[in-house]
Amino acid sequence: MSIEVRNLVKHFGSLAVCDHLNLDIPSGELVALLGPSGSGKTTLLRMIAGLETPDSGSVLFHGEDATFADVRERNVGFVFQHYALFGHMSIFENIAFGLRVRPRATRPSEEAIRKKVLDLLKLVQLDALAGRYPHQLSGGQRQRVALARALAVEPKVLLLDEPFGALDAKVRKELRRWLRRLHDEMHVTSVFVTHDQEEAMEVADRIVVMNEGRIEQVGAPDEVYDHPATPFVLKFLGDVNLFHGRVGLAPGHDEAVSYVRPHELDIVADPDEGTWAVTLAQTLTVGPNTRIEFRREEDGSYVDVELSREAYLQLRDSLGLANGKKVFLKPRRVTRFAVPA
Ligand SMILES: Nc1ncnc2c1ncn2[C@@H]1O[C@H](COP(=O)(O)OP(=O)(O)OP(=O)(O)O)[C@@H](O)[C@H]1O
Questions:
Q1: C-alpha 26 – ligand 1 centre gap (Å)
Q2: In a 3-state reduction of DSSP, which class is residue 206?
Q3: C-alpha–C-alpha distance, residues 136 and 262, integer Å
Q4: Cα 155 to the chain's mean position, in Å?
Q5: Do residues 129 and 91 touch, judged by C-beta distance below 8 A?
Q6: What is the 159 CA–ligand 1 centroid distance (Å)?
Q7: Class of domain 241-340
Q8: CB-defined site of ligand 1, < 6 Å
Q9: Residue among 14, 19, 39, 164 to mutate when testing ligand 1 (max atoms within 8 A of CB)
Q10: Which is deepest, 16, 21, 64, 323, by most CB within 10 Å?
Q11: Residue ranges covered by each domain of the chain
């Protein structure tokens, strides 16, 4: 089922939490709403779900206006950050719940429910734990149960609000990959909220970058990373070094802000066209990567360079890198945004 968001506006008091949002989500896509805290992601998700009423604008499901449709009519499944499993029910019963509470006319037979739940347990790789209770599971396992429970009623749309937010980094990483694989099998149109750019980049077909109630950019992960539409997107999707400067610009603009990502700078021994003279300030190695901080001769500003530990060790030997060493940096790629005059 496709989702269309048209000119959606929502205020809380005088604050425009969603400010004329437009978004098309094709059927079967997995979309991440990515943005810092307070950017309006959850509010947008809740309006899609029918848990929040917009001030104006509309939400269409498969071309039909669903703006004021009841939550129950929308056929959406939810997974939230804090797994709201029923503590007194086994894992099996938790997943079966949505089917059991259906009116008799549409309720599947006991045998059909059993088959469905066992299939879902297999899908989320928890078939061995059907008889356990939520408190006997790890956080990651509980989130997988929550997902199986949401899928049990065969929703047309799956909405996930920071589903892995409460889990530790390693489990988060596993579940992300698992969600991606699951989505590839099920193809349920899914929207998930995250403030973690790595999570969005890894899981989503497309990323919607939000900031202060507005959509800054919508695109595939590579697209938003390689061709950020605004300085906000560039900065939000990874570390950057920032420079102010005058460069050949369109009329009406007299200044630009330039950005270079730390891994897009080469360290060289000799000056060349476009190189910057720098002094090494400090080096930090974490795991397989090394980060070096340099000070620019021109203006005393600091520039971070990131490279693999291996590449660093080679350069250290060939260039004699050490604190205070003078070398040159050559940016491989610079992104510029004009500042309006
Ligand atoms: N029910 C409400 N009443 C008043 N203000 C609200 C309400 N819900 C959200 N807000 C405000 O709206 C803004 C956007 O909130 P929202 O939860 O949509 O952002 P978010 O991007 O999901 O952030 P987070 O990642 O922190 O959840 C915030 O400033 C928040 O304080």
A1: 26
A2: strand
A3: 44
A4: 22
A5: yes
A6: 17
A7: mainly beta
A8: 12, 17, 35, 37-43, 195
A9: 39
A10: 21
A11: 3-236, 241-340
Residue found by looking up tokens 């802000």 in the block: 257
Q: Whose CA is nearest to atom 13 of ligand 1?
A: 38
Measured in angstroms, how far is the CA atom of residue 126 from the centroid of ligand 1? 34
Q: Whole-prediction pTM value?
A: 0.86
Task: Indicate the CATH number for domain 3-236.
Answer: 3.40.50.300
The pLDDT tens digits for 91-107 are: 999 999 988 888 888 88
Write phi, then psi, for 12 (nearest 5 degrees). Answer: -115, 110
Give, in degrees to the nearest 5, the angle at Cα 260 between 254 and 262: 160
Residues 6+ apart with CB under 8 A from 101: none
Q: What residue owns the CA closest to ligand 1's atom 18? A: 40
Mutation choice for ligand 1 from 5, 10, 12, CB with most ligand atoms inside 8 A: 12
Cα 341 to Cα 235, 245, 323, distances in angstroms: 22, 13, 40
* Beta-carbon-side half-sphere exposure of residue 35 (alpha carbons within 13 Å): 24
For residue 64, give both structure tokens.
Answer: 């039909």
- pLDDT per residue as tens digits for the range 245-293: 654 445 555 678 888 999 999 999 999 988 999 999 999 999 999 999 9
User: 200 CA to middle of ligand 1, Å?
Assistant: 20
